[in-house]
Amino acid sequence: MYPCTSIAEHNSMEEILKKTVVTLPTYEMRDKSPPPPESNSLEFMLFYKSLEKEQRLEFLEKLSHDFGVDHRWASDLAAKLLDTQGRDVATILQVEDRLRYSLTPRYRQLLTHISKVQGGVKFLVDLRADLIEFASSKISDSPHMRDLNSTLKSLLSEWFSVGLLRLERITWQSPCEILQKISQYEAVHPVRNWTDIKRRVGPYRRCYAFTHASMPGEPLVVLHVALTEDIANNIQGIVREFATLDADEDVNKINAAIFYSISSTQAGLQGVELGNYLIKRVVRELQSEFPHMAQFSSLSPIPGFSSWLQGALGQHKKEGRATELLSEQEWREVEDVTGTAPGAPALEALRRLIGTSEWIHSDRLIHSLEPALMRLCAWYLYGEKRRGYALNPVANFHLQNGATMWRLNWQADTSPRGIANSCGIMVNYRYFLQETSTNSAAYMQNKFIKASEQVLGLVSQFQKSSKL
Amino acid sequence: MYPCTSIAEHNSMEEILKKTVVTLPTYEMRDKSPPPPESNSLEFMLFYKSLEKEQRLEFLEKLSHDFGVDHRWASDLAAKLLDTQGRDVATILQVEDRLRYSLTPRYRQLLTHISKVQGGVKFLVDLRADLIEFASSKISDSPHMRDLNSTLKSLLSEWFSVGLLRLERITWQSPCEILQKISQYEAVHPVRNWTDIKRRVGPYRRCYAFTHASMPGEPLVVLHVALTEDIANNIQGIVREFATLDADEDVNKINAAIFYSISSTQAGLQGVELGNYLIKRVVRELQSEFPHMAQFSSLSPIPGFSSWLQGALGQHKKEGRATELLSEQEWREVEDVTGTAPGAPALEALRRLIGTSEWIHSDRLIHSLEPALMRLCAWYLYGEKRRGYALNPVANFHLQNGATMWRLNWQADTSPRGIANSCGIMVNYRYFLQETSTNSAAYMQNKFIKASEQVLGLVSQFQKSSKL
Amino acid sequence: MYPCTSIAEHNSMEEILKKTVVTLPTYEMRDKSPPPPESNSLEFMLFYKSLEKEQRLEFLEKLSHDFGVDHRWASDLAAKLLDTQGRDVATILQVEDRLRYSLTPRYRQLLTHISKVQGGVKFLVDLRADLIEFASSKISDSPHMRDLNSTLKSLLSEWFSVGLLRLERITWQSPCEILQKISQYEAVHPVRNWTDIKRRVGPYRRCYAFTHASMPGEPLVVLHVALTEDIANNIQGIVREFATLDADEDVNKINAAIFYSISSTQAGLQGVELGNYLIKRVVRELQSEFPHMAQFSSLSPIPGFSSWLQGALGQHKKEGRATELLSEQEWREVEDVTGTAPGAPALEALRRLIGTSEWIHSDRLIHSLEPALMRLCAWYLYGEKRRGYALNPVANFHLQNGATMWRLNWQADTSPRGIANSCGIMVNYRYFLQETSTNSAAYMQNKFIKASEQVLGLVSQFQKSSKL
Amino acid sequence: MYPCTSIAEHNSMEEILKKTVVTLPTYEMRDKSPPPPESNSLEFMLFYKSLEKEQRLEFLEKLSHDFGVDHRWASDLAAKLLDTQGRDVATILQVEDRLRYSLTPRYRQLLTHISKVQGGVKFLVDLRADLIEFASSKISDSPHMRDLNSTLKSLLSEWFSVGLLRLERITWQSPCEILQKISQYEAVHPVRNWTDIKRRVGPYRRCYAFTHASMPGEPLVVLHVALTEDIANNIQGIVREFATLDADEDVNKINAAIFYSISSTQAGLQGVELGNYLIKRVVRELQSEFPHMAQFSSLSPIPGFSSWLQGALGQHKKEGRATELLSEQEWREVEDVTGTAPGAPALEALRRLIGTSEWIHSDRLIHSLEPALMRLCAWYLYGEKRRGYALNPVANFHLQNGATMWRLNWQADTSPRGIANSCGIMVNYRYFLQETSTNSAAYMQNKFIKASEQVLGLVSQFQKSSKL
């Protein structure tokens, strides 16, 4: 429709914006104005898609800067609101409503209109993904861009409200298209082939996704569940176990539901709560399928533990506190196995060991490193914070949901990836259904982390032995 | 769950409200606060449903009055905004955002949370139906209630945005549940039995509905279409014609699409644009099924014409202008047929005639009344206004959509209902697809009605002959 | 395609047959012959459908007479088979196979080919319905027509084999088309309106049908089930009870499944076992839905009882044995109520009473007639036979399936129809799942009827009191 | 259910057979006998599945030998039929019917009953696969086993009659289960991964399958179609072309439908016509989707050509006719390229070349071998016969369907498999819809092969140059 050579040209940006981002109607006419023709929205979408990354940035900056709130209008109404204080309530309410209306950015209307055309919602989700990328890469972090992002986020929150989402159970009978997507999106424990994915939707497994009317066939957030006898302490038993692939489920062997992977698929929906609600819906679904089921828990990775540990070891070395993190006995083991001298050399050997994942082939090291790595990991999860909340993003997610930090599991993910990320340790965040809402509030408002005795015990060992 | 005797008691209203309408988090904590437990929303819903009509009114008044905007906070921030004028834009944007947040009524959050629980959206749609009923019956028309209504309407507008609606074609293969509902909802030309409804979804007919993810199986707005050779001028040929019930459609006989009935089913979605969008979507659908199709038109009833005419006749009589509405020749015919004296007696006879629908059995009357009733009706549709827009609601709907007032049809609905409502006259509002958006804007902004020569001719005859 | 005037002409019949009923290939070429073109089958179908009833009869007679088995060929091979006696087994098997092949009627191939074209199977089902009608009306009962009928029946039996049928549960979500058909087909307890049919697929009810790949959307046999606390003794409580229409089912109140209506919809599938298999499949279905359910029973009408009783009374009167059927006490009651003299007048009065259904409005008559009508009815069901099997067709059906004649219920169907058909009596045939196959064999092979003590008691009372 | 050790024991075979293969009812009782309990069929199935291959053979031999036709009964009735000659036709028909009945093998009933239980039809399909395997491996080729096979085949033919099959179009939206199966079954051009299969159901491709009510989710025969501008002469362009994977189809570029792969999936349905009917149904489907489409053709492999050629070369060498197959000029080229002496050495070199597929890397050889290999291949397809029909099974299939041997394509399949099987040559069998039924009859009855001028030209070149 557009000659490709010209659409991205500089001056056309302004033209397109002027044409498509129509002026806000007056307050009086706000319900009397017919929507602009659909072609407006389509033109905007087509133009934006034709732009290169840097051009998009420029375009969005213009949009957010030149088509936002009319500050003059807003301040006039603010003044008027002050004038009405003491007047009758009807007048106050009226002015408040006008003021609220005047605070609407002009581009908000455009976003709403775009949401109504075919493919519009998906377009806005992807546009927001761009905004997030620009912000996170610090290319652009203007207050106007933040305003645009937050306006768009609040619109997306309405449209992706839980009441409008559809829970779908994914099975081997689901359309191939959706199963292929789920295979691709699975970032936590990658899917290698048809048998892998068949396993994850087969007996003793459940796979659920939220989909949305505006993006049919597109799973927004995917939750993989294993149905087990006890709360699983090992991921290989879940994703690499094919014995039961054609078995019938024996309901008597199903006592626990293990959430072993949850993936969001749309970068542009960052900050729009979906995973949390998906877990809650799935719990309800499972309770109705297995009324006797009482144990719900994640089996979660601990991304970042290894690099945090490397950092901590480096820091100790630099500060000459090489011997603090492990007990004397533990250091002795390291020295023995690695044939190094005490102090810095042993510490350096330990760093190398952890860096190379080789220690996993030595039963002796596996055994001797366990207490130290477990308590360090417990501290990393429980004690390391960012703005007062858990530094580890997976922990933060489950704690926000109201889960309890329940059990650290040694040798839980012995895949190269698992060793490299977290020395093979995984953690169960357990959902005690009676407690999740109080836990969630305590965490979000008071930054209080609910943890089990095992975790608290490891943390206190760490505190005793280390002076981090 | 609640003992019925106590829940509706006076003091429990306040308790329930205090408990369920939680305080707005501070601006800083607005993204940090976990949603209140679902049970809050469920309790509110259950309580409300248990109330009688008058109790509901009382309850909503309390809600809107005591849990709205915090005026003090808003005015403080308005003052702050005035202070920041001249400061850097980041500061201004920040204060604007805080001000916007402070203008959020406290109950808005509750409404959002309710929308997320099962059946929540439907609950809110029904609650708004109550609000509208209270407002229209003038029982309650406080500014707070208007604010609540408008807050709820804007939320519903987001949730029922077109991008989230699903177009469904209803056929004889559709679930019985949905067909029964469509039969019940059809208010324009009532459905009498299975054959009637089978006809309306059979060959040479189309029936479309919008449904929504949050209310599965519930058609929100239903459009009935007849596929005809020419633009139909008669409804009986559409709803009472069963000859083609088992025929195969002959695509060569399909040149026009006649929208002969459109019904909204949810009182609580008043003001949320659905019908307009449904017509547009259906036009697209039909164009892709019948690429050669070029004529789109409604065949619409004219509710209110007869009673308006009765009123006008009464008024003329009272004002002693008995002879104005008809020409001399026309009055003579009436006098002849009814055996009455000229002037008031003839006018009275005419009123009676129209009131009883008996004239329809006299070919002579049918013939002699046609010119007068047609020009009166044209005036009623084109000239009678309410706040500048067409008084007749059906006309107003199609004119807003950008249709042209195209043709009045004599003897178009000879059912008792049709005679009683509009002396058997129906009107085509025609959709010229190239023009609808300009027509719509001209009507909504400048109150300009696009009409055909036939209609304008009748109007001008009326203006010449009558001095209404 | 055919000019209607000429197709049905006499000589064209022979032409059509000669053209479409191709010669059987030789035994050697039987797998080498390509099927005739589809147009052959279509021509035959079109021609047949264009014929009037009497022409169809003539046409089928020609088909069956002139295009059947080649008797000469068959007898030649029969002779050859006799010659091979004593020869090696391979030779014998070969001749047997040739003989079997020679006994194939030539029209059998045509029927098979028709079954392969679109709508072909349905065509053959309807053609067989014609055959059955001709046979039953004795218009034509030639041995050739019987052969054609039996050939077609055996083909239909293969195609409608249970393994090829699909069990569908019909609900209020099923396509309207199928629910309308089910309403129409329901002959036992007619469906009056939407609410009626909604009731029969709603809570505490199940409706199942067999459908077949070759006739999509067409239920072949329909079974209505009520889920009750005890074995129901009254039909009005099932089909006229709307209290639970929107209730949720309480699984604790479901102890029994009552088959209260079973209807075959295709006259042409007479003799092809479907109902029997449907009941068995449904029992399995219900057992898996309600594992604790242990009672399965019909609640069946007794068509023909009233007219049998009228006949019996007439016979007694004629034979001057007026007083035999009732006890002295019972006659006295009749005389009292009707004010008639003993003997023939009383008997005549009784006949009239039963004929008019008026007795149902007299509590006294209801009470006094009960013992006599119950034991007469028991005898009718248990003792009256046709070729050794139960005369009553419903009884015969359930007994063939292996059910037990379990309980007669007084005042079980008080609808006018129920009173007129069977004096309001209904019967439960109960399915004891462990016994059905032995019961069925005992009935079919030895004509033995399994009945409960209640039924046997009534029969023995009848035998004592009456000398029918 | 069965102790595994004992079920396969010798004497239990006879017991199982005696128990489950019940005696045929007498002619008079044939409609009066209730079916044996389902458990009979289930027991037979379970037992058979528990057997090892050799035990199955023994078991089936017993079944076919001891539970077949009652020869004495049949010969008695044959004698009776001879006696009735000259009697009235009713008597003759009666005896014929009895004779026909007596020729039913006793096991036929069992097979019918098995078909009615869940999974029964699939069991019989697999059982017949065993029978076919036994027969083809010459382990067992008794006349009784042949009878059993032919009885079972005729039953399967009824059950898998075309009217009972469902055509399904397979797309990327189809259940993953079915797509995985189709990937596995594709034997002609193997599917390597998700992208491969996505390609084969994507734009410009169609994939159709027949499924059957008794084996849900199981495609029985699968046809892959490419939609092209011209009749394709190369398979890599079809299965390795991904450029259009996400394109929209341009209907103007679709003039031809190329059947490039057809696979039967059930060994046990050998001889039951499915592929033929699938092609016909798909042609109808495509004609209704693309009314202007006029070219239908296969692009078929030529399995067996290379080995036939090897054999022919070997034969020539042995017979000292080394120089016959190629022209002098052609031999010279071979000698040049391979550096061999004329005569036997050159022929040996040629054999080796063809055996190793190396020649494909030499443009010169590709060029110089083309005429010879093309005419040899044309002869192989057209001239080589088995019992008078084309030796090549793919050719035989399409010729039976009425296709024309239309075009040989050089370098049409350059995959290793294609070179190894047929020197890279493929052939189009073209379907001229007006001719297929006459072609089919001419081929099947008179063994006449319809071929194009190109093919006939090559054949005649071969005949001139070679003295095979």
TrEMBL record, chains A, B, C, D:
Keyword annotations of the record: Cytoplasm, Decarboxylase, Fatty acid biosynthesis, Fatty acid metabolism, Lipid biosynthesis, Lipid metabolism, Lyase, Mitochondrion, Peroxisome, Transit peptide
**Where is this gene product found?**
Cytoplasm; Mitochondrion; Peroxisome
Instruction: State a GO cellular component annotated for this protein.
Output: peroxisomal matrix
Q: Any idea where the Malonyl-CoA decarboxylase N-terminal domain is?
A: 67-160
Q: Which Gene3D superfamilies match?
A: Malonyl-CoA decarboxylase, catalytic domain (3.40.630.150), Malonyl-CoA decarboxylase, oligemerization domain (1.20.140.90)
What's the EC number here?
A: 4.1.1.9
Q: In which pathway does it act?
A: Metabolic intermediate biosynthesis; acetyl-CoA biosynthesis; acetyl-CoA from malonyl-CoA: step 1/1
Please list the GO biological process terms of this entry: acetyl-CoA biosynthetic process; fatty acid biosynthetic process; malonyl-CoA catabolic process; regulation of fatty acid oxidation
Report the InterPro entries cross-referenced here.
Malonyl_CoA_deC, Malonyl_CoA_deC_C, Malonyl_CoA_deC_C_sf, MCD_N, MCD_N_sf
User: Is Mitochondrion tagged as a keyword?
Assistant: yes
Return one GO MF term.
Answer: malonyl-CoA decarboxylase activity
Kindly report, in one word, the top-level EC class recorded for this enzyme: lyase
Where is the Malonyl-CoA decarboxylase C-terminal domain positioned along the sequence?
163-431
Q: Which reaction does it catalyse?
A: malonyl-CoA + H(+) = acetyl-CoA + CO2
Provide the protein name. Answer: Malonyl-CoA decarboxylase, mitochondrial
Q: Origin organism of this chain?
A: Phoxinus phoxinus
